[in-house]
Design brief:
Blueprint (H helix, E strand, L loop, with lengths): L5 H41 L6 H26 L4 H10 L1 H7 L1 H16 L7 E4 L2 E8 L3 E5 L5 E5 H5 L4 E2 L5 E10 L5 H13 L11 E7 L4 E10 L3 H19 L16
Antiparallel strand pairs: 1-2, 1-5, 2-3, 3-4, 6-8, 7-8
Helix pairs in contact: 1-2, 7-8
Membrane topology: Multi-pass membrane protein
Keywords: Cell membrane, Membrane, Transmembrane, Transmembrane helix
Pfam families: MS_channel_1st, MS_channel_2nd, MS_channel_3rd
Length: 270
């Protein structure tokens, strides 16, 4: 057996140490270049107004990971690893790797499907995968949402694509529904006239389709009146909140009561 001397150790460090250092420098530079290129690709694609913002970010993300894959291959070559051998080994254990990475591959495939079919775009408010929020980004592996109180939600793409997507912002208009109960002793005509008055004085309500004010139910303790108005999707919640308050205020002015659950207790004495 050949003896292992200090000179052998020195030669080994010189030979492989320089390769490792060079590989680390290449790896660092490659990650920096990948991030820089991603930003440049996004800026370039944004100049074409025909491209959707979600697709722009997805392509930029794809470019970044592609460059990283090339850099890692170059680094492996630099440190003396035979990439051809690695490819052969990966081919041999391809089934095992596929099973291990099936979730990751599924996320990539789902991301591609989201790009192709576009069930939503950046800035729209959606509900998917058990979460709801405004779409901030769709990346190679994940979809990012922001809740109304600005909490970040990151979901795997397959959780989004594999579930029903409710897009609240897809259509230009939405219908706001209200159910208001009045006492059986109050005038239905007066109540409906008051509701129509509030609706006519709200400029954010669309004239078409026409607003509906109908008696919808004779409930246990109230006569329920349903109001349906159409508004721009962006005005849905402001109109919902404002009309709820104004309906109550106008009912108070008109002397119309809104009943609330009560219990009468009768004490029987022997």
């Amino acid at each position: 057996m050949p003896s292992f001397t200090t000179q052998n150790l020195y030669d080994l460090l010189i030979t492989y140490g320089l390769k490792v250092i060079t590989g680390l420098v290449l790896l660092y530079a490659g990650f920096k270049i990948a991030g820089y290129t991603e930003k440049k690709v996004i800026d370039l694609l944004r100049r074409h107004n025909t491209l959707d913002e979600m697709l722009v970010r997805f392509l930029g993300n794809l470019t970044r990971y592609g460059i990283i894959a090339v850099v890692v291959t170059l680094v492996l070559n630099q440190v003396g690893v035979e990439t051809a051998s690695i490819i052969a080994v990966l081919g041999t254990v391809g089934l095992a790797i596929g099973l291990a990475l099936q979730g990751t591959l599924s996320n990539i495939a789902s991301g591609v499907m989201l790009m192709l079919f576009k069930p939503f775009t950046i800035g729209q408010y959606i509900e998917a995968g058990g979460h709801s929020g405004t779409v901030k980004a769709v990346n190679l592996f994940t979809t990012e949402l922001a809740t109304p109180d600005n909490v970040q939600i990151i979901m795997p793409n397959n959780a989004v694509w594999g579930s029903s997507v409710v897009n609240y912002s897809h259509h230009a208009t939405r219908r706001a529904d209200f159910t208001i109960g009045i006492s059986y002793s109050d005038s239905i005509e007066k109540a409906m006239s008051t509701l129509h008055h509030v609706i006519r004085n709200e400029p954010r309500i669309n004239s078409e389709p026409e607003a509906q004010v109908v008696v919808s139910e004779l409930a246990d303790s109230s006569v329920n009146i349903t109001v349906r108005v159409w508004v721009a999707s962006g005005d849905y919640w402001p109109v919902k909140f404002d009309l709820t308050r104004r309906f109550k205020e106008e009912f108070d002015k008109a002397g119309i009561s809104i009943p609330f659950p009560q219990q009468d207790v009768h004490i029987v004495r022997e």
